[in-house]
Design a protein that fits this description.
mainly alpha, Serum Albumin, Chain A, Domain 1, 3 domains, four-stranded antiparallel sheet, 12 helices
């Protein structure tokens, strides 16, 4: 219901009228965007006896804003972070069920938690703790299946939202960069030197605060072949990868395609020379 005689953040009800943002009823979407960006729109005297219901305006504004911001890129960031949490959950769960399996007389040498869950589930069929072990293993297997489904979904979205970056460094690494950087809009503003050390924030903090040696690379270290290079040569190749990544990210942001095949070939050639 319209409010009368109350102080509100968008205007003050005065005895002779209301002081509000100019054109609030017709242009509330633009006015709210201005306010979110720290700009105060023009005010005017409202002669109507009723003050607009701000709640309706805000609800409509938030619905529209969510629709605008729920991009494919944001889905990658959110689902990628959730997948990383699943990694930790599965590993933690594995440690617990592994000890239970050993106590139940079930041994498994596999270091893959998902293989362990499925193996224990099969072994539990004729075991005295069948129901308990089966229930625990089914939960672990379900977590693994969920992670696999999300990984497939993320790979598809990475090819759509980051076609150049995915072709250059691979879908998994492209997803990891998107998650840590916070999305395409943030990553496109980063210089290649920042891209190079994404994921090495702790080492960078120690460098800045304690004077330790600066990091040469972050998760870019996962690029195939980079880890096998001599330590003295990794930094140079990592800079090369980061430079080409910066180009690929900008192309993805602009919606254009570039020759990532020759860029990747140049990187692999540099890795081969460095390992020779």
């Amino acid at each position: 219901m319209p409010q009368k005689g109350r102080v509100m953040w968008y205007g003050l009800k005065l005895p002779e009228g209301a002081l509000m943002f100019k054109g609030l009823r017709e242009n509330y979407l633009e006015i709210f965007r201005e306010l979110r960006n720290g700009r105060i729109p023009e005010l005017e005297k409202e002669t109507s006896a009723e003050v607009p219901d701000l709640r309706e305006f805000l609800l409509d504004f938030e619905k529209r804003r969510i629709d605008e911001e729920l991009t494919e890129d944001l889905l990658i960031v959110k689902f990628g972070a959730f997948r990383d949490n699943l990694h930790e959950t599965i590993n933690s769960y594995y440690e617990g069920i592994r000890s239970i399996g050993l106590l139940a007389g079930i041994s498994e040498t596999s270091q893959d938690p998902c293989q362990f869950f499925r193996h224990v589930l099969r072994l539990s069929e004729n075991h005295k703790l069948k129901d308990q072990v089966a229930a625990i293993s089914q939960t672990g297997t379900g977590l693994c299946d969920l992670r696999e489904s999300i990984t497939t979904f993320l790979s598809q979205k990475a090819r759509e939202s980051y076609p150049n970056l995915s072709a250059l460094v691979g879908e998994d690494l492209a997803i990891d960069f998107a998650v840590l950087a916070g999305g395409k809009k943030r990553m496109v503003r980063m210089p290649s030197s920042t891209i190079q050390v994404i994921g090495a924030e702790k080492a960078l903090f120690n460098h800045l605060s304690k004077g330790k040696r600066p990091p040469k690379h972050g998760i870019i270290f996962r690029f195939p072949g980079l880890a096998g290079l001599p330590t003295a040569k990794r930094g140079k190749v990592a800079r090369m990868i980061a430079n080409k990544m910066a180009i690929a990210i900008r192309a993805d942001y602009l919606g254009s395609r570039i020759d990532t095949e020759s860029m990747r070939s140049a990187i692999l050639a540099a890795i081969k020379r460095g390992s020779a």
